[in-house]
Amino acid sequence: MDPIIILLSAFLLSVAALAVYIRSMQTGAARDDVSGANVIFAHGETGHVDDPAATPSSREALQDAVAVQAGRGGAIDDAELAARVAADQSTSGVVLAYFISAVVWIVLGSLAGLVASIKLHNPDWLTSSDWLTFGRIRTIHLNIVAYGWSAFAGGGLAIWLLPRLLRTQLQGASYAMSGLILWNIALVIGVVELAMGNMSGLEWLEMPRWVNLMLAIAAGFVAVPLMLTLKRRKVEHLYVSVWYLGLGLFAFPVLFIVANLPVHFGVQQAAMNWWYGHNVLGYFFTPLSLAAVYYFLPKILGAPVYSYNLSLLAFWTLAFFYGQTGIHHLIGGPVPGWMVTLAIIQGVMMFIPVAGFMVNQFGTLKGNWGALRHSPTLGFIVAGGLMYVAASFQGSAMSLRSISTVGHFTHFVVAHAHLGNYGFVTMVFFGGIYFVLPRILQREWPFPSLIWAHLWLVIIGFAIYFIGLSIGGWLQGLAMLDAKRPFLDSVTLTLPWLKSRTVAGLLMTLGHLVFAGNFFAMVFQPGRERGLETSPSTVERRVSHAS
Amino acid sequence: MHLELTARRLVTGTLVFVLLATVLLVVLPFFRLRHLEAPEGLHPYTDAQLRGREEYLRQGCVYCHSQQPRDPSQAPDMKRGWGRPSVPADYVYDTPHQLGTMRTGPDLFNIGARQPSAAWHLGHLYQPRAYVAGSNMPAYPFLFEVKAEAEAGETTVAVPPQFAPATGVIVAKRAALDLVQYMVGLDHTYPAISPHPKQGAAGPLLLPTKDPAVLADIKVGTAIVRDGVPGAGVAACAGCHGQHAEGNAAIGGPRLAGQSDMYLDAQLAAYADGRRKDPIMLPVAKGLSPDQRRAVAVYLSRLSPPGAAAGPPPEHAVLERGERLAWFGDEALHVQGCVNCHGPAGTGEPPTIPYLAGQSESFLGASLHAWRDGRRNTDPSGQMTQIAKNLGDADIAAIAAYYASQTPPSPVAEAGQPPVTGKKR
Question: What is this model's ipTM?
């Protein structure tokens, strides 16, 4: 059968299915539009800001800065809050373990990234050991930040969010712990294997297949409590964050298992490689992060999300379009033309979900921008959300042939990848951890000012990273396209920008060390118990202490 | 109730979308590409090359070097000497694939053709800046040893004095030697799609047969080609088309050998009824009876003489333009690639569409001009006329030069059947 016919019929079928879904979601959600968006709040809670990472004084200021004040001072349903506290308590041990893993991995991953960055402009630095060669240390960096930091931070947030969103308690926490231990063991082994040079040669799938099998088993362990918890849900409505979490948690096993089947070959393997490499962001890290944004942004502001229907539309369009965009990594390559065309079309269609998210973010923030001055947590979340929009629009543009022609094969793509994985995903996870840790440890952050230091270090660092490397990459691409210029021009002209990337990486790593210092000070300093009097407006604390 | 539905929608909806993407991007290519066979010019890796490829993976070379030259319409990779655009069949031995997504360094798909010197590669691996000032490629000293002196059988590496160790010699380890074996073996400069097996001394001049009807046609055809039909005013074909119909570039007589009999017969009919206007061919076609025409066509279709003497090689730029038009056409001119109808490598789509590869520059040029001027009008779809009208003289010359430089096909199947081109299943 002709692939074009298969393609066309699959496309038409899917668009029809999509229309049915959206229609049914709208009719279903329109009925309880308000209650759908309000499901994350207890009765009487809207209008109350909530940032556990804020100091008492900044919390007051934050409350004064938000637009919606209706519920302030109103009676909040204590029973609902008690249920939420119970939900948090059911996850506290597990989530803490996930966050500790995440923080250790991001420090290691940043150092590996920094070494790799320096090596690109100082190629004779640290050349005597094979494990420090660029090809390996870069790979170690990617695998640690993706499968160490992002997986644990995102997984921890998912485990924390789900019982809250489902108004129940985490079931089968021991499975989640077993999964964490196995995943960590597998990752340590995997990184050692990479250092020894046992790399598969497939980007994003470099670790040996048997290590990936361990990771898959570990993921299976993590899935059990999430499924059990989902079954025990006590809410009428599944909040949009649950949908995103579901997408991430159901899709990842499919991606990971199919990618690791020992059947792929040649060019087909290249197609599979970028189906996986792109979807591990699109179907795993992105939905986990969007789930967090859709929860934390309204929660911090005490205001429901601007348009709940739009969030559902954005969800289904993202789930449909994102998965088929990966082959734009092979534009100009030896893959069948229809695959590239499909990737370009769906890449441009990604405009729909991203625009939906953007409208929602700006709508929810409308009148609340002043709150950013009082909540670094909100700063991380909002910055992450903005960079999601930027990264996605940039990604749509980059899937066009005309732009890909210049940007492909250059540092421009590296900058873009970091805009998604760092600017968006990592920033949101930072914000999430700042929010969650005081809840599960029942303590204040010991050094609130360091949260601001962290925020500004990584924002300034990343701005330098992205702007510098984008310029350098674009110039590199233009030089490569000009046959009259020797290839080496495209190398030498990037060197200043590669150096600026190292400066940026230093700032970002410094930010991560500040974060890790604050984090471990909080974990290992039980003396700084957060008392009732130091957090007067934190409703959960009130209930928790009363009970 | 509503709640149950919602949870089910979540699970089924996301899984359906994920699986759809998987089917499109993983499963479909799997079934479409798994029967690919290696092109003729591509050889399996040797053991040393395979070990070297392992080393290529172990050092993560793919993070800075692609192995996929881009289409000339997109990037001047060909002009940099990186080679023609690669095709899926080039990668049949490449699992895991190493296509790469980054060009911190140059594309390596044809590094073996571009830089075949193993000594250069060894020195360059030891210290890239000794060979390419300004390179930011890592040095790989750990793939080498510095010894007082080399033992028998060891390969020493010569580098400029300022990069050499103070004392002793640099000896390449096995890993470095294997890696270099792999790199100098990276040569995909053979044609993307195998041209027809090379003919000449190896193949028979005339395709053998035992079919009596065909044998009778051959007998009649041979006589007409050699001597013509004097009484009917039919000149000998050999006069303009060569003794074995290999063509005569000097006077623009096309190669007829191996063209399908149905096509040749149809051309004679076209000359006779004026759809092809040619003062020389008109009396020939009119003078032959339908049976004689068929016999000549059958005979010619079974011939496979060596190519006629080639003229001086055309300019590189002309050839490149011709190749581009042949393979991809030119969107701006509304001209599609010749290969779309004349088959990959221009070897024709018998029985209706003639081969172009190996025809003389003079004939191909004249023929395109004839299409353009309406002196040739044998394409009911009007495609050829339109294409020729959209082409300028320079482009016509470029296409002619390109196909003249290609190898003509030879008949290997029964007449009327498509000759084997490439290895399709």
Answer: 0.91
